[in-house]
Design brief:
It is a single chain. With about 80 residues, the protein is an all-alpha fold. The protein has one domain. The protein is about 70% helix and about 0% strand. It is built from four helices and no strands. It is elongated, with a radius of gyration of 16 Å. The model has no long low-confidence stretch (mean pLDDT about 80).
């Protein structure tokens, strides 16, 4: 996503080709994996298992992880702190 009117982001996106098919597919796959864990967390009734799933999600927002900002945003929006 490019912030409206952000020329620098647009240039970077085009310059390093961030929307090439293999990267788009990789992002899609990663988001789907995270979504599966999130869905399992929603469905889970066992508090111990649910806590393990939440911890798994939280490990995904370490600064060295891809999509950490996305995962952190999802976790915060679902109040899994």
């Amino acid at each position: 996503m490019i912030k409206k009117g952000c020329e620098r982001a647009e240039i970077t996106l085009k310059d390093i080709d961030l929307n090439r098919p293999e990267l788009l597919e990789k992002r899609k796959t990663r988001v789907e994996e995270i979504q599966k864990t999130l869905n399992a967390c929603h469905r889970c009734t066992n508090s111990v298992v649910k806590e393990l799933l939440i911890e798994e999600l939280k490990s995904e927002y370490a600064t060295d992880k891809e999509y950490s900002m996305f995962v952190r945003s999802v976790i915060n929006s679902h109040d899994y702190k």
